Structures are given as structure tokens and as C-alpha cells.
Amino acid sequence: AFKAAILIQQWYRRYVARLEMRRRCTWRIFQSIEYACEQDQIKLHNFFSYLIEHFTPSSSKERDFISRMFVSGESFKEAELEKYCDYESMEVPDSYTGPRLSFPLLPDHATALLEAFKQKQQLHARYVLNLLHETRKHLKQLPNISHVSTCYSEEVTVCGDLHGQLDDLFLIFYKNGLPSPSKSYVFNGDFVDRGKQSLEILIVLFTFLLIYPKEVHLNRGNHEDHMVNLRYGFCVGLITMSRVHGKKILKMIQNVFCWLPLATLIDQKVLIIHGGISDTTDLDMLEKIHRNKFISVLRGKKRKESNRNVEIQEINGESKVEADPAGNEAAPSLSSQPQPAQAPSMANRLEFSKWVRQTVQEQIEWCRRLADISESEEEELTSSSVVSLTDLDGPRWTRQEEWKQILDILWSDPMPQEGCIVNTVRGGGCYFGPDVTGKILEKYNLQFLIRSHECKQEGYEFCHNRKVLTIFSASNYYEIGSNRGAYVKLGPDLVPHFVQYQANKMAHTLTMTQRQGFPVALISRVEESAFRALREKLFAHTSALISAFKAYDKDNTGRITLSNWATAVESVLHLGLPWRMLRPQLVRSTADGMLEYKSWLDDLAMEQRSQEHIQSSLLEVIYRNRSNLETIFRIIDRDHSGLISFEEFHQTWKLFSSHMNIELTDDGINDLVRSIDFNKDGNIDFNEFLEAFRLVKQSQ
């Protein structure tokens, strides 16, 4: 009996270990593909930034167009934004049966919204724009770092990424209760993208923010970024859902995103940021940055950096004039720096405050002319800018330094090794080690950090000797059953208490017999989804794989060893996966340990062609480049109409041709755009855009 029990125990442990190994391999596949996609997005961005840096517009109209499309994108004056998003002129039809909002908002409005969204109803665009307008007004008054105290509530609940998964938010509220004066929440960014109900999540969170401004706190994540939204679905989903007012809503949301606070401090002891930190993270700088400048954190705006340095020198009182070759000082190209009026007495605080504001505004206007900053980038005095005015003699940072601070806290990840290195896997931010965490905690007298940004199988994970906590609230993120969601509750003792969940309707309908085999079935389903995505990735790089295989096939036999297969695949895909372990799922076993790589690639092509009736060489190109082509299309489609106008195409092609040194006349560009407009409606839709690439590939 003892021997039988030990044997059963061994079998069971071996079985569980194999299941866990399968789960971990599946996880590695999903995560590697996700990060590779983010890396592609940043590379695409760097490419466009390079084009802008080296493009010389031939006219002011051309310069303004390119600036609007790629650089300042969505910048509006206050009056222009309100006029563009004028919700008061919109009429709500009598046939509308959805929820209605009136301001100031009350708890009943939030309850009605939740019930309406559960019934799959939508909020009318008038109320959405009104809500966004009020949210923006509120956010502008908030500091860059929010401060929360457990003295006024029993506990503070911190939620991680939601990514448009409204069911997870419903489940959190069901388990933990709605926000209230006694129940504070911190939502740590990445509210949108990937999921199908991003707008609904924003509406719910913004509604509770306005009802309970002291109890609900929102941090900005790396997906609260216009350029990231172009790739991961939020922009397209919003325009598709509301074709009449979608562009206005999107424009307003972009402006709201850049006003979101960057971090939250609980009891001055727990720092909550979306991504992480670096060895240069400076909370004092973060508190004083004008966060609304960065509509997209992916844009560094290096072009004006030299002008910014001039601006800083002038503000500090250092005269900046150019010298001619003979050594004589040239006259300044702009009007001289304005001299402030005589300061009034400090006794009259009102007069002194008005004098400071007027003087600073004059300096800003002069520096704007000096740096050639357009009026559309004009900023108002907000809480963050007023903070910086109180320390006129303090340090001045370059825009590049400010940008890096925000990039690091939104994009960085922890690593087990010591030090701080560039995050080459994501393409943005850095990897920070336990020594970097320790220094930041000691410098600012903190107990630990809470961050999100990474999907975790259990919904949360500690690292760095329990000094860094990752919390992720979107369950079933990659596939049903791939991961749990979680949130963490902190009381006055700041000891974290976790609640895990899985918003999976399928699991709730299973019988007891089905539940016994449910974990295995889920692992199989998730595993199948992961390997399907991996095969698509392999197929998309067929040409590069053939070249890599041939390097090991010196005699041109069409066969290579399985070990060489694993090495070659990694050299092409750079996913960092354990290919030898994954091989049985990707390659049929052979008796002599050799692989006929051409027939293996033919099998991959056959699998993809069964889904798309296109020749395999063309399909390979589309699989590899579709995401990039779609993102490029959305960037060119500046007004998010789903169509590229002839003017948008014309100006963008001039940008490309200047980079590639291709001489093309305006008539030549017009002929090109007309040839792509297959249905001759005066615009280019995405199918026509994709078809143009297909025809070029076929002709090659």
C-alpha cells in the first residue's frame, strides 16, 4: 500500500510539473510576442521622428501640416478645443433611451451608468463630451503626484491595468464595493486598448472621479498615449462606434490623457507608478514637470532641444548672441528680453501675485518667440505650473530630461539583476534592479513601490525582496484562462491584502464533473492559442528563416539538425524563447534528428493559406507588416476619418521622398494617389492602402 501511494504521488507530481511547464512556456510565448509588438511600435515611431527631424518644409502650409500630423498632433488652444468639442449644441433625440447626465454628478448617475453598460447601452455623445470637459477641468487642478491618506478611509484599493475589459471592473466593484467616502481607489493606468469596452471604462472612472474627487485617483499609464492608441485598437474602436462624433470624443480624450497625474503617494510611504523607476528618477522633478506637454510620451521632440537650451540660458540671465567669424558680436535676431516692471511690496500679496504672473507670462511669450513655439502650444497656469513659479531660482531642466522622467515611470520594468539598463525588450524605458529600488526608497523614505504594466499569471507578484509589487487587474488577458486579475487593499498599517478573480462566464456554467478537468482544458486552450500566434510569427519571417537555415546547410541538402533549427529561429525572431523545449509542438519528430526545413515551412504556409486565400509569399509580407501598415495608415489619417485624403497622402509622400532622395513632382504624386484610389471616390481607405502594397509585391 505504501509503495502504491508513493508511486501514485510520483505520477501526480510529474503530471503537475508537466502542466506547470506547459503553462510557463505558453506564458513566455504570449509575453515575448506582446513585447516584440511594442518594440515594433517604438521603432516605427523612431522612424517617423527621424523623418521629421530631417525634413525641410518648402512652405509654411507644408510645415503646419506635418507638424499637426506627426509632432504636436492634437494641440489646441483652450477656446479652440471648447469650440471644436461643443457639446451644448448637440441635441439628444427623444428616441434616446440610454442614461442621462447632469452636472454636478451624483452617485445615482454612476449607478445608472453601471446598469446601462451591463445592458449593453451606450452613453450619448453629448454626455460623453460634457463628462470629458468636466474631467479635464478637474484634472488640470491636480498636482503631478497625488497624495492619499488612509486616515480618512478604512483602506485604499489599488487596481492595475484594465485594458478595456469592463467585466473585470464590474467584478472589482462587486467584490470590493463602489467608490465612496469610506472606500478610496487608485487606478494605476492602462484603462484602454486591446479590450472592446475602453470608452465605457473611461466613462465609469471619470464619473466616479468627479463624484468622489478625494477618494478616486487615476494615474497615467503608457497606453494613455495617442500614438499607442493608434496601434492597439482604441482609436479605431471609438471612431467605429461613433462615426458622427467619434473624432471629437477622441480629440478630447487625447487632451484629457495628457492631464492625468503621473503618480500617487499613500501616507508618504507607498509610491504608485504605472511602469517603474530608473537610476535617474527624480520625484522633485516629476512634481514640477508640465505634464500636459506630453500628449505622446513616445515623441521626444528633440528638434527644439537646442532652442530650449537657449531659452534656459536666457531665463537664467545669460546673454546669448551669435558671433560672426571675425569675432564681432552679431545683433540678436529677436527683440531683447523684456525687463520686468518694478516689483510691488510683498505686503500686498494680491498685487505681488499679479506682478509675478504678468512677469512670468512676458518671459514665456518672449521665450516662445525665441524658440519658435507656435501659439497652439500655449499653456495655461495650472497647479503644476504654479508650483514651478514658486521656485523661480530653482533648477531648470531640458525638455529631454523631463521626457525621460515620464518615459521611465511609464515604460520601465524590474529585473532581478543589479543595475539599470535600457529596456530593449519593450523598446522604451529601462530595466531597474533591486539596488536602484533600494536607493529610491531610501532617498524618499518610502516603504515599497506598487506598479502595474506587466501581466502576471496570479494577478500580482512581488520582487526585489518584496519592495516592488506588480498588480494587474485584467484577467484572461491573452486568452480565457491565461491569467487571474487582482487588486490590493492597503489599510493604515500599509500591509497589502490581495483579492484574485477571473471574470470568465464560461467557468461559472460548468458542472462539477467538468470543473475537475477544467484547469487541464484551459491550459490546452491557452496553449493552442499561444502556439497558433507563434506559428503566425514564424510564417511571417519565412524568407529570413530560409536564409538562416541555409547558413547551416552548407551542402544544400534541405536538411539541418534540430539544434541548428532552434539556433536559427532565435537568430531571426529574437523572442528569447526556449525553442528546444517548444520544438515538439512546432516540429514533427524525426528518427535521425534532422529537419527538412523546406517542407516544414510549406506546412506553415499551408496552415495560414487555409485561413487566407492568398499566395504564401504575399501572405508572409502581409502577416509581417500588417500592424505597421495599419499604424502608418492611422498616422497619415490625421482626422481619424478612416480615409486618407489626397492632401494627407500628398504631404506624407513628400516626407518619405525627402528621406529616400526620390525626386517626384506634384503631378507625379497626384498620379500615384489616383492609382491607389481604386474606387475613385477621392479618398484612400485601408483596403485600398493594403491592396497597393499587395500589387507592388506581386509585380516584384
Automatic annotation (TrEMBL):
Cofactor(s) this protein cannot do without: Mn(2+)
Specify where the region named Disordered lies, as residue ranges.
Answer: 309-343
UniProt keyword Manganese present = yes
In this entry, which stretches build a coiled coil? none
Keywords in UniProt for this one?
A: Calcium, Hydrolase, Manganese, Metal-binding, Repeat
Question: Which E.C. number(s) belong to this protein?
Answer: 3.1.3.16
Q: What class of enzyme is it?
A: hydrolase
One GO term under biological process is: detection of stimulus involved in sensory perception
Please report the stretch or stretches of sequence annotated as the EF-hand domain. 540-575, 624-659, 664-699
Mind telling me which SMART domains this protein's record contains? EFh, PP2Ac
GO MF annotation: an example: calcium ion binding
What this protein catalyses is: O-phospho-L-seryl-[protein] + H2O = L-seryl-[protein] + phosphate; O-phospho-L-threonyl-[protein] + H2O = L-threonyl-[protein] + phosphate
Task: Output compositional bias ranges, type Polar residues.
Answer: 333-342
Which InterPro entries does UniProt cross-reference here? Calcineurin-like_PHP, EF-hand-dom_pair, EF_Hand_1_Ca_BS, EF_hand_dom, Metallo-depent_PP-like, PPP_dom, PPP_phosphatase, Ser/Thr-Pase_EF-hand_contain
Q: Which family does it belong to?
A: Belongs to the PPP phosphatase family.
Protein name per UniProt: Serine/threonine-protein phosphatase
- What species does this protein belong to? Aptenodytes patagonicus (King penguin)
